[in-house]
Amino acid sequence: MSMNKGQSKSKNSNMDRSPTNQSTGSSDSHNGSIVTDSRRKLTGLRKNDEERPTVTMRELLTELKNADHTNQTSPSSVASTTPRSQESKQYKERDSVVMALINSISTSDEEGLSRQRVLMLAAKRYANAIESNPDDYDALYNWALVLQESADNISSDTSSSPKDALLNEACKKYDEATQLNPALHDAYYNWAIAISDRAKLHGRTKEAEELWKQATKKYEQAVQLNWNSPQALNNWGLALQELSAIVPAREKQTIVRSAISKFRAAVQLQFDFHRASYNLGTVLYGLAEDTSRTGVLVIGNELSSNELYSQSAIYIAAAHALKPSYSVYTSALKLVRSMLPLPYLKVGFLSVPPVENPVAPHIDWRRFKFVLNHEGLQQIADSWEYLEAWFDALRLVYTIFARGKTDVLAGIITG
Predict the structure, then answer these.
(1) Which InterPro entries does this UniProt record tie to the protein (predicted)?
(2) For 33, which of 5, 196, 312, 401 could close a Cys bridge (C-beta 3.0–4.6 Å)?
């Protein structure tokens, strides 16, 4: 029994480890057991990061396309007539190579050709801005986004070298932009996406391992600057999961546990974030498979494979309830439905003597919550990890009820 994994970036980026590969829109892709949400965030040429509105690449391309006619008949608004410094000349020489890379991209369909013309215009626009002012971090950031978009425009049938080169140049621009303005959290986020795309081009190699490590660090920096970003946390978890598939076995457990914590944090920030919920379910499923195969309890030496399977089923069911139209969720739910915990027959509290003193007076007895289910009498939440999973599940179920989808939820639980 295998589960899928997927990642999304600004367009479609796939972190694939298993069979299913399904696009979920301009910012999502499902590829195996995980779903990512990594939209590239664009800014215009703004004064500071706090005032910077987030726009999409499509909106920027539309703006540039509309400006194309103006630029053909009037001087560029960003071109400078001031004497160029030595630094500007160095930029121009280096960027001529980048321009040649963008110009070399060929596509067969008319839409792709039109898109590439607009991207070339954008590249020239930002190159002129940097030539005029090498400290323009906004122009560097937006140019990096254009390079990323150009890399996406390369056909999958062609060699990966041009795409890797463009992504590498985008990473350099992000590096320069963040050196000038270390508070650009969107730049770290998109930088991480670019590095992840490069890692996927290198397969399961040592170079890919290093790139995945770099990507996790950039996601960490993005989250440190903007902690309220479930998308960054979700993608951070995905990068960690990809890394766990490459590193030596002795390092895998620590990395997987870290990925779980990132997905869980994303769900706790946004309870209806179905991608993070699904990803958490699938990473727990993979952990359950490993535990079942090796017989070694992995999380705090407390959770068995059956408990992990049960947690996995809860998150996958919640993701499906939030987005029942996603076929990848439907397929996953069919695999784990039987692992969902059954309703309790009885819930209540019992007072028991402390373990260290079974004959203690009644006043010293402790009150614990117990449930009676199909397996027997059990104490609730034997571990903090298990307790967290139930808290997350309760929040998700509440969100589903609040959205008026009780019929969907009931259908999942009853099968």
Answers:
(1) Endomembrane_traffic_mod (IPR053277), TPR-like_helical_dom_sf (IPR011990)
(2) 5
